[in-house]
């Protein structure tokens, strides 16, 4: 009888543990990023990660009460597949908001305009307009919105789109002379030129697109909590301060960098919830 009582107690304990999982606050926030995408996610000389996305991640994790963070380095071409396979909670690489992507992921509200910049060698002839890029060999990150932007215009401008798995490889292609230019997000290009005196940022290419973070479809509660934190980061100026620090210039006064947006998600895209919500940023 004594043995039976012990066995039943043990079974009850196991059952209780099974139905009482640790709260999300006890877990690390596991994210993915294309490490080496300046100025969003980069390795510091000591091996630590730094950049705009890391500043945002630390702010969001603290706001969510998470027990630390873990960043998985993932080539961008496979980053959404990994997200939907459950390898991580969200993607902190800045992701262009597009209708096609909105079919397979859930966007936070946009946090920055996504204009493109042209990176080339300082001794190369200057690219002053999009027309100057006609016939040029251009390095891009495979699967990115920049890849799509250039591919859609390839027949018109006759440029050659050469795809690389990671941003660092695309930049190295320009440094080695394999490609004449690398096109990516304007802030990424500006920082690459700032950090290497052999490189230069040339013309900016407006896209009409914005950057956001992404979570799996169905993870509405997590998306909304993350967005609340991003809105607080906008409201208290922490996002603008991070972007100015890494980009090297103050964001325009009318930028969405400063503006918490209505509802949850990217307005007019799938997954958007227009329900008003109050912003609580204390603590």
Short recap of the structure:
This protein is α/β, with parallel strands linked by helices and 283 residues long.
Task: Report on this structure.
The protein is of the alpha/beta class. The chain folds into 2 domains: 23-112 and 209-250, Periplasmic binding protein-like II (D-Maltodextrin-Binding Protein, domain 2, 3-Layer(aba) Sandwich), CATH 3.40.190; 116-205, Periplasmic binding protein-like II (D-Maltodextrin-Binding Protein, domain 2, 3-Layer(aba) Sandwich), CATH 3.40.190.10. It has helices at 2-19, 52-64, 79-84, 99-102, 145-152, 154-157, 167-175, 186-195, 220-235, 238-247; strands at residues 29-33, 42-43, 49-50, 69-73, 90-96, 105-107, 112-113, 116-121, 137-141, 160-164, 181-185, 199-205, 210-216. Strands 1, 4, 5, 6, 7 and 13 form a 6-stranded mixed β-sheet that branches. A 5-stranded mixed β-sheet has the order 10-9-11-8-12, with helices on both faces. A two-stranded antiparallel sheet has the order 2-3. A hairpin with a 5-residue loop joins β2 (42-43) and β3. α2 packs across α9. The model is unreliable at 1-22 (pLDDT under 50).
């Amino acid at each position: 009888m004594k043995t039976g009582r012990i066995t039943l107690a043990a079974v009850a304990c196991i059952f209780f543990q099974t139905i009482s999982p640790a709260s999300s606050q006890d877990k690390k926030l596991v994210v993915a990023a294309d490490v080496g995408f300046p100025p969003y996610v980069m390795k510091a000389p000591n091996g630590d990660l730094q950049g705009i996305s890391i500043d945002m991640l630390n702010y969001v994790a603290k706001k969510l009460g998470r027990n630390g963070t873990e960043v998985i380095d993932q080539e961008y071409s496979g980053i959404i597949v990994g997200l939907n396979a459950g390898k991580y909670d969200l993607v902190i690489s800045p992701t262009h908001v597009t209708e096609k992507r909105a079919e397979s992921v859930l966007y936070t509200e946009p946090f920055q305009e996504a204009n493109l910049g042209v990176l080339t060698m300082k001794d190369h002839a200057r690219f002053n307009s999009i027309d100057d890029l006609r016939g040029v060999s251009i390095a891009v990150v495979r699967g990115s919105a920049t890849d799509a932007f250039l591919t859609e215009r390839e027949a018109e401008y006759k440029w050659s789109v050469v795809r690389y798995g990671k941003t660092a490889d695309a930049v190295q292609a320009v440094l080695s002379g394999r490609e004449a230019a690398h096109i990516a997000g304007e802030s990424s290009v500006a920082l690459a030129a700032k950090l290497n005196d052999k490189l230069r940022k040339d013309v900016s290419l407006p896209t009409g697109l914005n950057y956001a973070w992404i979570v799996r479809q169905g993870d509405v509660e997590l998306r909304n909590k993350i967005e609340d934190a991003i809105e607080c980061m906008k409201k208290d100026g922490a996002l603008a301060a991070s972007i100015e620090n890494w980009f090297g210039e103050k964001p325009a006064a009318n930028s969405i960098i400063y503006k918490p947006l209505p509802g949850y998600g990217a307005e007019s895209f799938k997954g958007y919830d227009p329900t008003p919500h109050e912003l609580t940023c204390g603590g």
